Amino acid sequence: MPLDYRLNEQIIMLPAGIGKQAMLETTVFKPNGPGPFPLLVINHGKESGEPRRQTRDRFIYMATAFVKRGYAVMLPMRQGFSRSSGRYLDFGCDMTANGYAQASDVLDTIDYARGMRWVDDTRILVAGQSYGGLATVALGTQAVPGVRGLLNFAGGLRDDADACDWRGALVAAFAHYGANNKIPSLWMYGANDSLFDPALVGRMHAAFVGMGGRARRAELGVFKRDAHGMAASRDGEKFWWRDTERFLEQIGMPTREIHTVAAAPVLPRSNFAEIGDIDAIPYLGENGRAAYRAYLGKMTPRAFALSPSGAWCWAEEGEQPDVRALETCAEKSNGPCTLYSVDDYVVWPNSVGSSTAESQPPVVAPTQTAQQ
């Protein structure tokens, strides 16, 4: 039987930190059956603003790519993020210390996973995006039992404080991690990464391998408008899988698809209007119609929501843009919001008064967009 598109998703709280007093909100995806399964741990990035306000990350597209190949996947929200307890530690421009602080929670996650009967504790892979990539490389300074390799997706951290040479601090951090490196890694940065340009990535990689670190830098090109989001993108697997597959084969991890995953449900098309017929859109004033014109140039997946109050919102890329558009629209509206279009077609109900609930596809949870 094919796996449901939700991949047996569950949320657990696992102990971490000093004395194991903190609890990490952790998403788990698994194939059907008891296992044991090889394990992938994915580490999230950091959005601007207060970490506590950052909602749970799922990386559903990357998780799906690995569950299809027989892996269990765990995604811990580190201390101070989302519903995880504990305190987020910020060492400012000391990028070396920042990486180590975040890696501590990753190590606690792996220690917890080893006690699960559904985990093959001899075959573990650790991946991280942006700040999570920095934490992943920092973790590689330890010979962690069972961890065979690391995937660094656009790893780093940016600090725009006036006194911070964050680029130089990153180079120094990766030099330090390289001098102490124990686990091989694959680095994947796109040519159009908005945070870490190719010149900086070249300096970081050269510092790492120059001090003895084992890391191959993938030669990736341009990904959509910003390669920094490739790990969370619906189209990301096509961009990063070839290099990942080669790396996994080298470290003895599975690469063959052995499970079929059913497609997620989608909203049906309506015959209310064509996607580009701006005059047909109800409720919107001139500003809203101008926003819809801009929306038609956005990347897919995308969604546009509106309200009888005249409120509107669109979302593009990443996970569940329909949920994100509805939630943000509702924050700006006195009344309920309904989806008008998704991707390249209109879903607005033809019967006036259709409920918002009837206009939404089944969803699991909202997710995040741009991160570092």
Mean pLDDT: 92
Which blocks of ≥5 consecutive residues have pLDDT under 50?
A: 352-372
Estimated structural class: alpha/beta
Instruction: Return the CATH class of the largest domain.
Output: Alpha Beta
| CATH homology group of the largest domain | Alpha/Beta hydrolase fold, catalytic domain
Main beta-sheet strand count, sense and barrel state: 8 strands, mixed
Count of DSSP-assigned helices: 8
Overall helicity: 25-40%
Shape: globular
What's the structural domain tally? 2
CATH architecture classification name of the largest domain: 3-Layer(aba) Sandwich
How are the strands of the biggest sheet laid out side by side? 1-2-4-3-5-6-7-8
Number of strands: 12
Distance between the termini: 38 Å
Q: What is the structure about, briefly put?
A:
Keywords: Hydrolase. The protein is 27% helix and 19% strand.
Keyword list:
Rossmann fold; 2 domains; 12 strands; 372 residues; alpha/beta; eight-stranded mixed sheet; four-stranded antiparallel sheet
Overview of the structural elements:
- This is Dienelactone hydrolase.
- Pfam families: Peptidase_S15.
- It comes from Massilia glaciei.
- Keywords: Hydrolase.
- The structure is a single chain.
- It is built from 8 helices and 12 strands.
- It has helices spanning about 60-65, 95-115, 130-140, 165-180, 200-210, 235-250, 285-295, 320-330; strands at about 10-15, 20-30, 35-45, 70-75, 120-130, 145-155, 185-190, 215, 300-305, 310-315, 340, 345.
- The strands form 2 sheets. It has an 8-stranded mixed beta sheet with strand order 1-2-4-3-5-6-7-8, with helices on both faces. A 4-stranded antiparallel beta sheet has the order 10-9-11-12, sandwiched between helices.
- Helix 4 runs parallel beside helix 5.
- The longest helix is centred in the N-terminal third of the chain and has 20 residues, at about 95-115.
- Mean pLDDT is about 90; it is low at about 350-370.
